[in-house]
Amino acid sequence: MKALDYIRVVLIQSTHPGNIGATARAMANMGVSDLVLVDPADFPSPVATARAAGADHVLDKARVVSTLDEAIADCALVIGSTARLRSIQWPEKTPEEAAAEIGEEFVSQGDAAPIALLFGRESSGMTNGELERCRFLVRIPVEESFSSLNLASAVLVMLYELRKSLVSREIAPVAGGDRLASAEEMRHFYDHLQAFVTRIEFSDGRSSKLHRKMTRLFNRVSMYTQEVKMLRGMFRSVENKLDGKY
To answer: Is the whole model's pTM more than 0.90, yes or no?
Structure first.
């Protein structure tokens, strides 16, 4: 399959159906068709269809889910789009840098799993908790005095850079090879990690942002399924020891 077939656009709680339709049009322009809507205010809608301007094939196969976890569960990489500087300290890249990393690190490894691009609410973007689900954030370098971008425009800019990087590339699973951990596997890993540090009382007296810092630490690398299993096995071994099981 073509690399662009693995790009998934995820819109979180979109409030206006016209923005969904315009996003579908931008996706069709760039050859991307995997659209997932997390708890949209109004969809399906004739307004979305009108704004799609013929990109009905994107809207027709769009999936509506209740939670972000459902939208990204099977993804090998999750990237968040942000329009402004955030108080949360998280790695940031330009669209061009993000496209280059996807092309060089993920596609070249032959990991046939979706790559999710998250776009938040029109008025408030994404919450810090949603941003923490991302390996890194993408911020489009616009004029600081007028930095607000239309949702579909932001999608188009990001997909344009990805198209330049990926349009001629194909991707397929590496036979017998270990695959990158999915977002669902990483979520379970982080939940286990948080429970583990609480159990061994490592978090006592430390920063309330400890979990965020640990998430940022492990997000710096591409973790494979077997590596996640190894670390969780180590946690369980210590937990069993504490429980006196051996």
So the answer is: no
